[in-house]
Amino acid sequence: MKRSERVDRGINVRSEGIYAISSLKEILYLAGPRMALVLILFLLPVVLDSVPYWKRVVNIMLVYSLLAISFDFLANYVGLVCLGCSFFVGVGGYTSAILNSYLHVPIYLSIPLASVLGAVICTLLLLPCLWLRGVYFAIITLMYPLLLTRVIEALNIFGGTNGISGIESLPGNDLENYIIIVVMLAILFGLRRFVNQDIGLVMRGVKDNDQSIRASGINVTWIKTQAVFIASLIGCFAGSYLVHLYIWAGLSLFALDFSIIPIAAVTIGGSGFLIGAVVGSFILVPLSEFLRFFGSFRIVIYCVVLTLFIVFKSEGIMMYISRRYHQFERWVDV
Amino acid sequence: MLKASDLMVFYENMLALNNVTIDIKSNSITGIFGSNSAGKSTLMHMISGIILDMQKKEEMKGGERISSYGTIDFEHQEISKLKPHERARMGIILCPERRRIFAESSVMENLKIGAFLSTSAETKENLDYVLHIFPHLTKHLHRQGGFLSGGEQQMLAIGRAIMAKPKLLLLDEPLLGLSPLYQKIVVTAIKEIRNSKKIAIIITEQYARPIIPIIEYGYIIENGSSVLEGTGNELLDNPDVKSAYFGV
Known about the structure:
The structure holds 2 protein chains of 2 kinds. Chain A has helices at about 10-15, 25-45, 50-80, 85-100, 105-125, 135-155, 175-195, 200-210, 210-215, 220-245, 255-270, 275-290, 300-310, 315-325, and strands spanning about 1-10, 165, 250, 325-334.
């Protein structure tokens, strides 16, 4: 009888300890994939220089990957399933629009200010339901964007259904690309580091067993508040960037797309990796652009692709790739 | 009644069961003893088919790969490829480790869920029977399962398994975390079940002393392999076994 066995590659074992820096090969093995991601992202605007439309798509793709990172962080590292990434986008976007258009704050201040202010607003609004778990938190986050849409529509504030226009645009074509690329990479690598720090470990503990965390004398709600603040900071930045990209803020910022596509991206890319979220949106967003060719049939194909992925590769692409990278298979006798 | 031969289970590259062969006679109680990580639960999962479910779930989330080999012959039928629910329909019922009762359902509901495969007449008869051997449950019939004490939860778990009309009842560590008094009640009840229902029972346990008086045959598993087998007295006579599993 034969059995296929998975074994760690020698280089994988070697590069775990101090030997990681023993030779160029080990360094490349560890840093290669990360460098490749950075390099590809920085080259994308150069390569796509002749097709400005696709440069735009790259921007949108990175915005979605930020949202997917925020969803992945909340769902798989803190255990809060947030169905309302569009809530973060909307709050961040509107804050930025108000700052820039009504209060004439310059763009280089309005984006960071809107990210922080928006994150504070989101966290405060979510604070009352932070001690809820599972489906309750999910429902409330799903409800907030709908609620805010109706409030803006009914009270006719912030431009009502017309939205806020006259917003400063991002300077230059290249800068517009590189801002989001740099921020996305910084957040991705920063968050990957963060989840392995002490506070990150506690957050993962909250997901696993919040009673044990309480028993260790840690205030679970405070930990969750911090996590929600980080996630909404990411989401609000994405929203405020979008507003300056479109030079317009409107109710479409609260659209369901911003909530659903990140979740789908995380599912496809592999949950619990952060990088999986990025890879997922790098696949889904361009795919959805390609499918525009099919007109209204687009959504059908999109759904079929998603379903096939979930049924046949439910572990996620990143899980599969990283296993292939670190391990090899061989047949052995039982 | 049941003959499982050459069972092998790998959790990824770790060997959890190594060429274990067990033979269960009908209307008998068989004990399987071993320390933590000996492979007792894996053996139970193999017989009840839960391992196939675990295999599927791990595969879906890209975790460890579980591979299992061996043949299981139950009433002259090869069942090692059958799904857990099909095996349950044939009468192999697992009462899982750590009880796994439905915490938010009442005791009555828990028992009724167990009786899913029976007709209503059988359900009524079995319900009376369960309440007869575990009178403790009678006064808690409408309490939520999660609020019962550990011992009562264990009785409920065994009761739920009986409601499913087992021909082969697998009890995975039924004495886990019970006081000596409750251990005695459960052990007496197990014997009573065998005598009146005429079914085969397999019990796994780490500490053999409370179980040994009621078993007809026993296996000792160490690091995934079956190292010793025999009747209760034969096991008792072995000095190594005595010190390791009986605390003498």
